[in-house]
Amino acid sequence: MLSDTRNVNWGVLDGGPWKEQSRYPCGDEACFGAFLSLITFAFDQWERGWMETLDDIDMVVGVELSDSMDDKKWERLMFDNSFRLSKLYFTVLQVLRIASSCIEESVSDLRLVQEKWSNAVQYETTDARNVTRELEEMVTSMEAKKQRLLSRVDKKVEELLGATSLREATKAMALNQYIYIFTIVTVVYTPVGFLAAFWALPFLNNPDDSGIVRTPSAFVSTFIAVPVATYAVCLILAAYSAKKRNSISLLFELQRFLWRRSYRRWQEGEEEDSDHEATRDVSASSLSDVSKAKNSASVPPV
């Protein structure tokens, strides 16, 4: 990006890259002044290139207002079974992380140039002071450019993290539904399987004197009572946990309500105190005016 010189006029007589910067290489520090001019031009191109890169990223992962009107497209953005969007978001997040490091590194390199110049200057000449001042201005300008770029990068990272969190939440919700169904099926068939294994024990199936294996008298009753008791206990525990969860949410709601009411009362008290102070100030000023009027009336004319 910085080596592209096709649209740059590098002539010295007509100003070259420093013509628009009001900085011409002259004096004892002419070489370093020309170097600063080229750095300024390069960093202008640097900022423009990063802005174009972030614009391209916005075009790739950006969402328009019309997308929210299309239900199919909106669901495709939220639910991705092929992990195509997840892979895209992960790639863009890594690119933004690398971009943030590169931006920081560029400004650090410019600060290093400033430090090396400060260490190299041995005599405080007018040209040296001008170069030092220009370096400070350049570092300040680069800090502002860096903040603009990093703020935009951070905003894009937050947007992508929010989209990734939404997709992970939807996948976790679907997984919870599968676990819920699996739990119900397990609860239904566990007592039946337990009883079948229990009544299949050899010592419970011994033949009688005639050699016939008879069905135990408690077989039918246990196959009815044990599953019903298991289902009843599961339903009671589920209802208790749901009630406890609702009570906890109600407790948090009550806490937030009390906090808001106390905060509102505190604000009203602050406003009343400010009104009382204003009333006292007005009363004090009126009393001082009255006393001044009395004093002026009591003074005899000369």
TrEMBL record:
Keywords: Membrane, Transmembrane, Transmembrane helix. Residues 282-302 have a biased composition (Polar residues). Gene3D superfamilies: Magnesium transport protein CorA, transmembrane region. One of its GO terms (cellular component) is membrane. One of its GO terms (molecular function) is metal ion transmembrane transporter activity. Residues 269-302 are annotated as: Disordered. It holds the Pfam family CorA. InterPro entries: MgTranspt_CorA/ZnTranspt_ZntB. The keyword Nucleus does not apply. This is Uncharacterized protein. The keyword Transmembrane helix applies. The chain crosses the membrane at residues 178-199, 219-240. Signal peptide: none annotated.
